[in-house]
Each structure stands twice: as C-alpha cells, then as structure tokens.
Amino acid sequence: MTNPVANLLFASSIFAARLCSFRAVASSSPRTFSTSIPSSSLPRSSRFKGKTFIVTGGTSGVGESIALQLAAEGASGVSVVGRNETRGNGVVSKLRDLGCEGLFIKASMDSVPDVQAVVPKHEERFGVAHGLVNSAGDTGRGWLKDQSVESWDRLFAVNARAPFILTQAATNSMIRSKIQGSVVNIITITSHGGQPYLCGYAASKGALSTFTKNAAHQLRKDRIKCNGINIGWTASAAEHKLQVEETGDEKWLEKAGEKVPFGRLVQPGDIAELACFLLSDKSGVCTGSVIDFDQMVIGGYD
Ligand SMILES: NC(=O)c1ccc[n+]([C@@H]2O[C@H](COP(=O)([O-])OP(=O)(O)OC[C@H]3O[C@@H](n4cnc5c(N)ncnc54)[C@H](OP(=O)(O)O)[C@@H]3O)[C@@H](O)[C@H]2O)c1
C-alpha cells in the first residue's frame, strides 16, 4: 500500500476495510481477478436437476457466482435479476453454456412494482421456483450525524423490503405447490454493528438478518428453509480496480492477504458453495441460521 489512508485501513482489521464496497470477483482462485468464471473450475453435480431458482444481484459478483454454480450443479432454469441488461444477458449466456436456461429479469430493487413482478415473470417461464437467493444489495455510505432520510429509506428498500416482498411471493407459491424450497439471504458481517460510515447499511442488513429468522420460523412447518450468510471481506474485480486507482499498487490483494489470518480474502466462489449447500437437500433441516462467513470472530479479543 502506498498511501497512508490505505495503510491505516489494512492495519485496523477487516472491519476497517471497505468491507461493503467490494464487488465480488467471479473467480474461485485466490489472489486472481477475473470477470468471468471459467466453467471448468465450477464444482459439478446433478443435485439441482429439474429445479429452478431466482437470484437477485445475479448480474454480478456473489449473485453471479451462485447462479453459475446452480447451473453447474444441474439447475434447469435460473432467473438473474438486476438492472444492468448487458451484464444480465452475459450471465444468461454463461448459464446456457452450462446447459441451464437463463432469464434476465430487469428490476430495480427499490421499486415495489419491479420487485413484485419478479416472481410472476419467473413462474411464467419456469413454473414455481425451488429456491430464492436475495443477493442484490445497496452498500451506500452514511454516518449517524448526517445520513439523509432518503438514503436510509433506499437502503431499507433494497436490502430489507425487496427480500421481504420476494420471499413472501416465492414461498406462498412454494406452499401452494407443496414445494419444500429454500431461501438464502446474502447479508453481511456488518449486520452485527458495522463501521460508523455504514449506519443505514448495517441497520438495513440487521433487519434482513432478523427477517431471515422470523421467516424461517414461520415457514418451518411447510418444510421451507430460510437461512442467511454474513459475508466478510470478499475480493472482487471492482475492488481491485478501486484499490489500484487509489493506491497505484497492483499487488494490494497479496498484501491484504498477508494481513488476514487465512492468508487470503473470501472469494465469491466460497460463498456460492455455502449458498448452494443451503439451497440443496444436503442442508437437511438447517433453517433460521445466519452464518458468519468471515475470518474474524465476532466477540473474539486478542
Ligand atoms: N463483496 C463484499 O465484500 C460484501 C461484503 C458484505 C456483504 N456483501 C453483500 O453481498 C451482496 C452481493 O454483493 P457483491 O459483492 O456481489 O456486489 P456486486 O458485484 O456489486 O453485486 C451487487 C448486485 O446487486 C445488484 N443491485 C444493487 N443494487 C440494486 C438495485 N437497486 N436494484 C437491483 N439490483 C441491485 C446489482 O445488479 P445491477 O448492477 O445489475 O443492478 C448486482 O448484481 C450484497 O447484498 C452485499 O451487501 C458483499
């Protein structure tokens, strides 16, 4: 790291880094960046054969990684939800290459009508979904002293209200069709409290965490699972760009890796593995769990 601000960020633990500005890299290999997943590196199986899924935030990063792993493990259809048509169609074409039908659903998660249209659009093409992944997230900054009401409301709309609307619609359909489906919410380690500049973000993801448990409790007798993943510092192509722009240091990731206990940051592929486990029958009766996916332990002290 060449600039003092960046040095300070790295030195003051994972929570001090731009935890939530990371755009997930679509690669499972540590310390490398790529914007596309080589399909040869995806774990293969047929455990999702005949099943279909909705993945918000599927146009990029963690969501894209989950969508592609679902396809590599036999899913017959995946709806990729987001705003960016070019990236969305790009993911759809990668899904096809993996033998899975893809559908890009253009939707802004802060628009109620857009969000309400997602599940019907998926069902029109594929029938009732077997799983829903809420990965779209707004990581907007804001301090207590001056966060605007508008930005607070937008964060809650994208990070908490949209997952609520989608979970309600998707699971009502599952119940009607007697499908024992699964919902996975991509949350953040910041939901435990978070950095001061992420006031609204942390609170909105905290709401998603509580919603995950409440929904799981309500859905358990229909044998529908609902779990969450609290993601920690995840390497991403966008962050690489940001870091290189700010520090001029192409090797920032290597140095960041040296400062964390496991010698590397989390990769989107790591998260996709857990999400797919939670979406699969392998996770058995596991529901209402919010799993910290990080290498720093909440509540631990040196
Ligand atoms: N990467 C990390 O270090 C990290 C850490 C903690 C938590 N997370 C969480 O992980 C999730 C995925 O993030 P990521 O790292 O994969 O970032 P990313 O690559 O930037 O992906 C974010 C996704 O969310 C979608 N999205 C954002 N705002 C939206 C909106 N208003 N309407 C519709 N779609 C929207 C984007 O789609 P379009 O661009 O197509 O609209 C994109 O597909 C987020 O919920 C984030 O909070 C990530």
From TrEMBL:
Family stated for the protein in its record: Belongs to the short-chain dehydrogenases/reductases (SDR) family.
Residue stretches in coiled coil: none
Name under which the protein is recorded: Ketoreductase domain-containing protein
Short name of any one Pfam family annotated for the protein: adh_short_C2
Ranges of residues in domain Ketoreductase: 51-236
Record carries keyword Oxidoreductase: yes
Gene Ontology molecular function: oxidoreductase activity
Classification via CDD domains: SDR_c
Keywords: Oxidoreductase, Signal
Signal peptide (residue range): 1-16
Organism for this UniProt entry: Triparma columacea
Lineage: Eukaryota, Sar, Stramenopiles, Ochrophyta, Bolidophyceae
